[in-house]
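Re: beginner question about structure tokens

> Can someone show what the tokenized structure looks like for a real chain? I only ever see the sequence side.

Sure, here's an example I had lying around. Input first:
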Amino acid sequence: MARRSKAVRQAAGRMRPDAGDRVRNEVAQVAARLMAEECVHDFADAKIRAADRLGVGGRNSMPRNDEVEAELRAYQALFQADTQPRWLAAKRRAALTAMRLLAEFEPRLAGAVLRGTAVEDAAITLHVFADTPEAIARFLLDRGIPWQLDETFVRFGGEGDEPLPVYLLGADGEDLRLLVFPADGPRIAPRSPVDGKPMARADMAEIERLLAEAVE
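And the corresponding structure tokens:
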């Protein structure tokens, strides 16, 4: 009996990782659906809500952000194949219009609109470079463009997050976020919230290419 019990325990131990993977996959799938259908934008928020709906808890139940985004891509391809590409293209066109206007600040597109996983009400994120944040404010004021000033935190590779000013405004009916980086500072991209690697950025030529490929 003791031998049998030990064998059962060993078998159970081998099964636990599989069960854990299954729970992680379920949380990732539900989190992706929340992001796609209910426009939950934050990965952490989506995962917490998903775990709550599934009645699971603990850090071992939480998938990585890149696992959630992979499920989001799959969900959009399966259930939003007719709609998501249209609003993604609209956001990229609006981004390109804004980038042309802001050309002197060397704008770069970043975030979900660039990665192709933007949900319907996702904001467009542009990284701009200026001597001071006030230079962006003066530029917008001179053109009669209303804006609101906010702040976000990014990570450049160290342990701590660093604050950056963000200008919130509209562009072709889309919400636009301008993250202001120092013009004379290092051009290292902050870490992506998806995989922790330096965040992908794209210039106007790259956005034009993406839009042309979507039409083909």
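Each token stands for a local structural state, so reading them left to right follows the chain. Residues 84-215 form a domain with the Beta Polymerase; domain 2 fold (CATH 3.30.460.10).
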